[in-house]
Every structure is written in C-alpha cells, then in structure tokens.
Amino acid sequence: MIDNPRTGVLRLTATAVAVAGILPYLALKIAWLTGSTLGIQDAAVLDDAGFFGLNLLTFGMDAVALVIVLAFVRLWGRRIPAGLILLPMWVGIGLLAVILAQVPLSALVGVLSGTPLLTEDSPVAGWVYVVVYTGFCCQALGLMVGFRYHARHRWPWVFTRRVSDGTAGATHEFQAFAAWGVAIVAGILAVINLSWILGATYGLPAAVIAGRTFAFHLNVGINAATAVAAAAGLLMIVRRRSGRPLWIPVTVAWIGSGAMFGWSLYAMIIALTPNPLNPGGDQGILDLVSLFTLLTGAVAGLTGIVALAEHASASRSAPPAAG
After folding, report:
1. pTM value?
2. Hey, what's the torsion of the CAs at 65, 71, 76, 82, to 10 degrees?
3. pLDDT at 319
C-alpha cells in the first residue's frame, strides 16, 4: 500500500505533533532525574526515592513513545515485531485517550467556574502542568493518527473485513466465555462508578467524599465509559453477528480495555509504592476496584488478540469483503 501525497503529509504532521509533545516532557524528566529543580516548588521531593522511580518509569514510557512515533514514518518501523508495537500502543493510547477527554473539559469547567485548577501546595509549578498536559494531548492526537496509518499498512484486513466475515474457529467457545465474563465484571465496575457520580458514598474514603469535585466525577464517569466500551466492543467482535466494519469494534475495545489496564496499573503502582502521590491511609474499595479493573482490562485485551488472530488467519485464505 503506497501513500498518496495527502496521506504522507498527514502522517508527517501527526509525527511532528507527537514529537512536539514528547520532547518537552522528556527534557523535564531528564532535568529532574539529574537533580535540577526546574519547575519544582518543593525541592524536598527530589530526595524522595519514589519520586525518582516514578520519573524514571514515565521517562522510559515516553522514550518508547518517541521511538514508536518515528517508526510510523520510517520503513524500518514496519519490520519491528508486532508485539513491540501493539503492547505499548495499547497501553499508551488507553492512557492518552483518557487525558485527551479529561484535560480540555476540566480546564474549561475550571475557567468558567473560577475554580483553581491547581492546589497551592502542589510540589511543581503551574506552568509544568500546562506543558505536560498540553504535551500529552499532542501525543494522543499524533500517536492515534500515526498508528492508524501504520496499522493500515501492516494489518490491512482489519480495515477491509466486516465483523461477520468468516466462520468461528476452534477457540470460539473460549472467546465467548471470556467475553461474557469481561462483560459481567465490566458491568459491575460501571455500576459502581456510576453510583459515585450520582452521589453514593459506599466504599469511598472520607477524604475523597469531602473533596469530590468535577474532576472526580469526570474521572469516574470515564471509568464507567471505558468499561462499557471494552465489553461492548469485545462482545461484538466475538459474537460475529454484525455487518459493521471490523475496525469499529476493534477501536472501541482497544481504547476501552487499554484505558482500563493502563490507568488501573498506574493506580496500583501509586498505591503499592511509597511516593509523594500515594495518599496513604484508608482507601476504601478504591484499590479493590483498581485491581478488578486491571484484571478485566487484561482479559479483554488477551481475548481480543485471540479473536483477531482468527480473523487474520481467515483473511489469508479468503478474499476481503467488498465495501
């Protein structure tokens, strides 16, 4: 598949946007890892081993993102093993899609309501948040567009087949069992999060109940939406009864399960390691919800891989669907 000039320009633009978001973030991380107080209001955090560890982890994640986004516009990128592209992009797009939804809405509500976006005791300066989260939004847009074009080159059958194409394979019973299990647990998680939006306080620690803001409600609302998306997209793929293009439920399940896995893994790391972001004390059922969200997202992702492997096999032995 050869890019036309317009497609080539879009790919290069997406890469430039993503790189523009990545480089300032990496520069900040390098500064902090080497002891610089650039943008730091409380220099004591630099002596915290947990703070150093989190910065090292997030530096590594964005360094991987930089390599991948460059791979999207280079021929050598298509020779990288699929797993080395798919796993970080699954987690990365899941993380960044949530930020892309949260940041503009939170900023708009904060401006309209006059509510300060940052607390006075924040360990880093306000401009750091502007740089970091603007960069994350740029990364989200650039990586999503770049990955779409990369996927069309490497796995074109995802974009040419329909959900109902082909016949169920030997693993279909396993897929159905796992998909319905994901749907049940995801439904429970969605109900829990929706109940918190509607004012329920069950399972929430006192500090969270006292400080519930628009950001809290937006976060749990997105948690509910990603759980529903993961389950709905996966069920559509596995049941094979829809005439829709395959890429639609794949995209929905991809973002939903990636967000579930990525953000709950991040929450578990914060909860289980000593660091400045760890709130400590009683967390109610928040950690338990994070654990089940992590496991459900992982099962959804693995089941999706099995289902798509069957579609890939069928696409090699049959012509693509018309349309």
Report:
1. 0.92
2. 60
3. 52
